[in-house]
Amino acid sequence: MKEIVQTGLIGVTGYAGAELARLLLHHPRLKGKPPVFAGRVDAKDAARGGVPLGEIHPELVDSKGSGSLKQEPFSWELLKERGVEVLFLATPHEQSREWVPDALDRGIRVIDLSGAWRLNEASNRAVYAFEDDGTELAAATQDRAVYGMPELHRKQIAKALLVANPGCYATSVILPLKPLVAAGLVNLDHGIVADAKSGVSGAGKAPTAKTHFMYAADNLSAYGVFAHRHTGELLEQIGVTAGEIVFAPHLLPIPRGILSTIYVHFKEAQTRASVGALYKKFFAESPMVRLYENGLPQIQNSVRTCYADIGFHLDASGKRAVIVSCLDNLLKGASSQAVQNLNVMHGWPESEGLE
Amino acid sequence: MKEIVQTGLIGVTGYAGAELARLLLHHPRLKGKPPVFAGRVDAKDAARGGVPLGEIHPELVDSKGSGSLKQEPFSWELLKERGVEVLFLATPHEQSREWVPDALDRGIRVIDLSGAWRLNEASNRAVYAFEDDGTELAAATQDRAVYGMPELHRKQIAKALLVANPGCYATSVILPLKPLVAAGLVNLDHGIVADAKSGVSGAGKAPTAKTHFMYAADNLSAYGVFAHRHTGELLEQIGVTAGEIVFAPHLLPIPRGILSTIYVHFKEAQTRASVGALYKKFFAESPMVRLYENGLPQIQNSVRTCYADIGFHLDASGKRAVIVSCLDNLLKGASSQAVQNLNVMHGWPESEGLE
Amino acid sequence: MKEIVQTGLIGVTGYAGAELARLLLHHPRLKGKPPVFAGRVDAKDAARGGVPLGEIHPELVDSKGSGSLKQEPFSWELLKERGVEVLFLATPHEQSREWVPDALDRGIRVIDLSGAWRLNEASNRAVYAFEDDGTELAAATQDRAVYGMPELHRKQIAKALLVANPGCYATSVILPLKPLVAAGLVNLDHGIVADAKSGVSGAGKAPTAKTHFMYAADNLSAYGVFAHRHTGELLEQIGVTAGEIVFAPHLLPIPRGILSTIYVHFKEAQTRASVGALYKKFFAESPMVRLYENGLPQIQNSVRTCYADIGFHLDASGKRAVIVSCLDNLLKGASSQAVQNLNVMHGWPESEGLE
Amino acid sequence: MKEIVQTGLIGVTGYAGAELARLLLHHPRLKGKPPVFAGRVDAKDAARGGVPLGEIHPELVDSKGSGSLKQEPFSWELLKERGVEVLFLATPHEQSREWVPDALDRGIRVIDLSGAWRLNEASNRAVYAFEDDGTELAAATQDRAVYGMPELHRKQIAKALLVANPGCYATSVILPLKPLVAAGLVNLDHGIVADAKSGVSGAGKAPTAKTHFMYAADNLSAYGVFAHRHTGELLEQIGVTAGEIVFAPHLLPIPRGILSTIYVHFKEAQTRASVGALYKKFFAESPMVRLYENGLPQIQNSVRTCYADIGFHLDASGKRAVIVSCLDNLLKGASSQAVQNLNVMHGWPESEGLE
Question: At residue A64, does pLDDT exceed 70?
Fold first, then answer.
């Protein structure tokens, strides 16, 4: 077990980057070793050594001076000089495709928050249209990637050189479904429905017609039905075919949080106790999943926490269930899951720095 | 065709009541004959002839003096004196159970916005626990009731003495499903899922823990799963059994609007054209339904209109569809549907006063 | 009094443009003569005769086909052909500076919603940095402009060729202050404070960092303190110097509505009655101003109406007052005030089509 | 300097109580000694030893079991048994009036978050109409009270037996004004204006017409103008008379946060540098105040922090300033200020546990 590591973070400017910075700055194992923040910096800012964190995210400023840390101009030399051992990428997936092989080549372990290395099947990757797909290097890199959901792949993550941090929607759908499907309970012929709703931060920081307040506020809209990029993660991780699940995301008029309502048919009648026990067993070693014994989770109780919350209702026959999962898309759906992976990779308690 | 009628409205104080008042006050056929507003009025207000509308709903005040109309103390004599021919009830269902038989007895036609008379099957009514259920009077009254969805029951509504105006959620689920189920397209063995999301006005005007801004804002929660009162309407009107549909409502952090996302399996593969044509035919005479030729409706475009909007996506196989319907819960989900019924009852154009 | 006029509207794509279109389409004097919508249209759309209104603003579609009206490629010939007599400009002010002289030259009366022609003093116009300022044409055009606030300039508007429709903030501050200052009640030495708060639609439709949902939601921020463009309108119309008033706008996390809280010292002690009487007299002929006899207006009651609402409180001494005004920035703050001007220009009732 | 203390908290059920619980549970000096939570508990809950914190505030549950802590039935014996040394009261002020003398009598130091003991002048207390006002006990208790704003009264708080924690609005107005008024810069003849805006949590947890989502959302309203309870705190702490300041609070459609916009006239012209230097000096020892060197704070950057943020603009003459302060009404406006006081009372770093 390593006592302390030097981390680096590329892409602190986005929403997930800001949350990740906050978590890393307060992580008990990283005290005294703040992450190296690096990225594209224009000439003027480069001349002053980078952009102070306090100018990028005023809300990160505390009286201990964290605001004066800087996002420095990225170079591999910089990372080497500073002794970066683990690199977080909160970058667009095109950039992650390019930089990850370089990092691995230099012996830096990577936790990539983008969608670049999450998918094993070429057919599922098609929606991304990666330019380098099919090259030898890309294939070799993909082979090294472990899907970074500790609740499913804890052991592989511990040794992984490249952790592909899951998508936010994917996390909210895989966690509640995996235990049921893996146990063979679900009647896949009848199809699973995953109706997911996400706050606006999921759409990113770029101002667009859809992130304009006038579009998002007082509204709800479905999008990406039958076509969302996270679908491939559902198929590979849950172990179902495209014909066995429908995934429909919606844009909620709130800043953050995802609630997924999931509908399944069981092969055999279940009881509250039988399903509850199954979940309990599956997540016995998973501190970042909270199971509701009664009632259903709601976004408000999950937002600004690092937990995924799961609850469910059965109908009178016990043959049908509605499962609700909630999480914060920027935390358990991105940055805190990344820190969970960091913890697992170093043998630290999985919830370290996340409560 | 009647040229003009005298309406009455009991229950103007609520949200749907306010919208109904606004619609009736501006209805071209009712000009010069404002509704008689009546209800429970305390002694002090009774002494001044009732409560001015402008004190109940300041937003209803216009420069023509509508704000000085009054909610007068209710009595059957008052309605008789004023010659009320059609009475709108925007009252709790217990009150509607009590008053409707009296109104019919006096020859007043009723459009009841409550859930009192919507359900034909005793088993479906059980959730309401009506005290008078099983009595001869109640049975006779129920026999006279017509479910007030013009798109389904236009002819019966035209002659009806008692119109049971549909529930808001029910409207948003029945309209998109009825055409498909009635045509025998849907594989009911696989089950239908109706994931519905409603703004807070649907929860009523009474301040409660769940309508508190701090609970509703920045939140999303599922409730009434497998148990919501509107379920019976779905079963009776769509023509499915409880085992063939799951209905899960959610509380949205917006003032008004419902979006329902509906998942069906088809028996045979369909095309965009085949489903579109079916809808077009079914709603050919229905001016208050807007069909989307492409894309999906969203709440923002339906709110503050009297329309129900319907759009859909098929998967590549043509065997599964996601249908999205949107409407304003206080208008097409309540008051404007009531006015639609008023129009149908008098042979006026169905969209009169609703655009 | 003209019975009917042909209107034109350039700039229907923005928020105010949409509201103006809605008002004009339903205006009782314009029935059967929908406005000519014109603007910059790309080649592809020009080829199909313009962009259907229903594609620009789906919420404007009604069953009478208004959605199929088109925004056509602008040309003066088009306007001439269609016989446009009054032209609304909901365009950026640079464009209004350019087009207004041309329109006047062609004998078309103009109601300009931009800030192009509102300011008589060159010093107040400086913030706009108009390229043509100082030219003879610009000076002559400015001479013809009447500030389009009917409550202040009804008679001049009636005959005006060019009406400069007021700014939204300006309307909300001038209306409550003008009567008090004009009557000589206000102690200007002590200074007036106008603390104004506006919904996000005031910031326009372009997606920017400040109109991003994540910035605007759950937030409040002051901006443009001592520097907002509407300040010049306050000075010229109220009749005070820059040193006698402070104006500080704030961005509210709501779609629409402005509330201005205004603080004044009186020279002599006033009473509720004396101030109320003054307002009543000043606005005696003004149907679009609603005076609160008790209490204060709030945004919710003014939004989606065409009224400006005014209420006030005096302190115990009668020497200080807090006045609150509310209006909808897209209606009384823009489009409905423009229609009010249209009405005044044609001798129609001022509130025609606005209730 | 004490190493560790046993705290108690009465009133964990409210919004400020929840935040206070969170802060105390994570406070580094209180680890291993969670607060004793006590309050009114019904018989059924008393039988099970109280109500688990996780049932009152699900969001407080973490994997370390904080959710299983209980709110126990209050009795002085309970507090004695557990050795409570410092008691936080997040109770209605009537209750604080009653309980504080008892606590002091038992040698327990009190930090009272209510308005019970904040005001020295009987005239300022009049708005509260305390039943015991004028009694000897009340007078003696008031004499012991120190106004709990460390930035103003650090030394007295250090020794205080009773700390009267400031009001949220009061904090947001006093902090930016005190330095300027104390230095004699402000022209009080011209009057100060404090236009304050608060999120809905400030109105408390009880469901009322004003905290209903439908009232608060998409709205803004002024209230308590010339009459708000916090006015007395402004007068006593800033050192001005009622005629020298106007305070007008507004209800914002957001969950939490206060922004106060403050308008002053200076006696002599100031510069950005002179005012900045004054603030810097005044708050040199105050880690929980963040001064903006440029620009103005906004709610979003202050919410969910324990800081008060202050920024300002001068006009060209240097004679007028607009000052903006922001804070989280539940933190710096209530619970974190209470913890700040706890820190000061025990000689711990003032920002301990607040970053």
Answer: no
Active site residues of B: 168
Q: Which residues of chain C have pLDDT under 70?
A: 1-2, 63-65
Asked if A64 lies within 8 A of D300 by C-beta distance, the reply is no
CB-based contact A214 C207, cutoff 8 Å: no
Say which of C36, C138, C164, C168 is annotated catalytic: C168
Nearest CA distance, B12 vs chain D (angstrom): 16
D7-166+334-345: in CATH 1.10.3720.10: no
CATH 1.10.10.10 for the B168-329 domain, yes or no: no
Q: Cβ separation of A246 and B313 shorter than 8 Å?
A: no
**Are B255 and B199 in contact, with CB atoms under 8 Å apart?**
yes
Closest CA to C296 of C305, C309, C306: C309
Task: With beta carbons less than 8 A apart as the criterion, state whether A152 and A178 touch.
Answer: yes
Predicted ipTM? Answer: 0.95
**DSSP calls for D59-87:** GG--TTSGGG-EEEEP-HHHHHHTT--EE
> How close D121 gets to chain B, by Cα (Å)?
35
Q: For A259-298, b where at least 16 C-beta lie within 10 A, e where not — what string?
A: bbbbbbbbeeebeeeebbebbeebbeebbbbbbbeeebbb
Residues of C with CB under 8 A from a CB of B: 58-59, 61-64, 218, 287-288, 290, 300-301, 304-305, 351, 355
Could you give the CA distance from residue D217 to residue D337 in angstroms, rounded to a whole number?
A: 28
Please name the amino acid found at residue D190. Answer: H
Which residues of D are designated catalytic?
168
**Class of domain A7-165+334-345 as given by CATH:** alpha beta
Q: Is A168 a catalytic residue?
A: yes
> How would you classify the pairing of strands C7-10 and D7-10?
unpaired
Map out the domains of chain C as residue ranges: 7-165+334-345, 168-329
Tens of pLDDT, residues D217-261 = 999 999 999 988 999 999 999 999 999 999 999 999 999 999 999
Tracing tokens 């309540």 back to the chain, one arrives at B334
Residues D240-251 pLDDT 10s: 999 999 999 999
Are the Cβ atoms of D298 and C221 closer than 8 angstroms? Answer: yes
